[in-house]
Design brief:
The complex is a heterodimer of chains A (267) and B (92). With 267 residues, chain A is mainly alpha-helical. Chain A is built from six helices and no strands. Classes of the chains: A mainly alpha (267), B alpha+beta (92).
Chain lengths: 267, 92
């Protein structure tokens, strides 16, 4: 059969026959195939573990990016509250970049999830085939002459070899995809480390223009937010929305300060 | 005839279905050679649909070699073109 399926069949079959050629004696073929299957099953397990590890890594990164979004959002609010619209705009622009990255991470994590499920199913299937192969081996031994047994064993070994090749292919594709995601995650991490998200115009250690300007503002805005909070607590209804905003940014600013050296004055 | 969709599983197809499969296969190759990715995808999806709908899915304990092996469902046109000549179908 020509075409895609013909080519694909040829490639897989040549791989299987290469595998079977290594053992000419039927019993040896069985043992060899069986041994290869056991090996492959181990590989599949390892592959699944790799996929899970990558997924966890991406999830961690997602968590970090989510924190970034909160931080940048807080910064934007603080800046706006302090009347610095340019600064708020810059913070929001960065927040956008991070959010875009978050979305693609989401898709990737979902993909990995799918890969993991698929590989787990493949592993179970291969295990079943392996059982089948083992019992068939006994039947062949008991019921057929040596010459016939050879043919039957080749058939069974081809069937199982094909399953092996297929699981191998599925695993390879899953790992290739994972590799691509890892490469991307690494790239994002490098960007992060270089301060692309947090410290676009980094001056000094881990402190960017937004951080510095906010630091200058923070004392006044904290006082302001305290004032707003107190106003709200005292129950003057007129400033309720401002009070909410102030309380939020006040709380967040101490959080951001712990993470990003916002509160430390340069010595 | 036994057809395997790579990375998915095996199906048993009747002769009529195989003839249709063959036609779609040739169409997919033509799209591939013309560099027409959308047509390739559409044709290949149709081909896979035919196998999945009309074929009988082989049980997990049926140990058969396939007559035809189809590329994985997520195959890219570039991959289909290269004819899967890369190493590594069987690890080790």
């Amino acid at each position: 059969m020509p075409g895609l399926s013909g080519r694909m069949s040829t490639v897989i079959k040549s791989k299987i026959s290469k595998l079977l050629d290594r053992a000419e004696d039927p019993a040896e073929t069985l043992d060899y195939s069986y041994q290869k299957q056991i090996e492959l099953l181990q590989n599949v397990k390892k592959g699944i573990a790799d996929v899970v590890t990558s997924k966890k890594r991406l999830q961690l990164q997602e968590e970090k990016l989510k924190q970034q979004v909160v931080k940048l959002d807080t910064q934007a609010r603080q800046a706006l509250a302090a009347g610095n619209e340019d600064l708020a705009r810059t913070a929001l622009e960065r927040k956008n970049v991070v959010q875009t990255e978050l979305q693609s991470l989401d898709t990737q994590i979902a993909q990995l999830e799918q890969q993991q499920d698929q590989m787990t199913a493949s592993e179970a299937k291969l295990r079943t085939k392996l059982e089948q192969f083992r019992s068939k081996k006994e039947v062949i031994k008991a019921q057929y002459s040596a010459a016939e047994a050879q043919v039957r064993i080749s058939e069974a070994a081809t069937g199982v070899g094909e399953e092996m090749a297929d699981v191998g292919l599925a695993m390879q594709r899953a790992l290739d995809k994972t590799e691509n995601m890892k490469a991307r995650a690494d790239a994002v991490q490098e960007l992060e480390a270089a301060g692309t998200f947090e410290d676009l115009t980094q001056i000094g250690e881990g402190e960017d223009d937004i951080d510095r300007q906010l630091k200058q503002l923070s004392s006044t805005s904290e006082v302001d937010s305290e004032l707003e909070k107190i106003k709200a607590e005292l129950g003057s209804g007129s400033s309720a929305p401002a009070g909410q905003l102030g309380a939020g940014s006040g709380g967040q600013s101490s959080g951001a300060g712990q993470g990003g050296a916002t509160q430390e004055q340069a010595p | 005839m036994i057809v395997r969709i790579a990375t998915e599983g095996q199906y048993e197809l009747g002769d009529d279905d195989v003839a249709e499969l063959n036609e779609l296969d040739n169409e997919a190759v033509a799209a591939c050679e013309a560099g027409d990715e959308p047509r390739f995808r559409a044709t290949y999806e149709k081909l896979l649909g035919l196998v999945r709908e009309r074929g009988r899915s082989l049980e997990e304990d049926e140990l058969e070699g396939s007559d035809v092996i189809l590329p994985p469902p997520d195959v890219s046109m570039a991959e289909a073109r290269s004819g899967f000549s890369e190493e590594g179908l069987i690890p080790g």
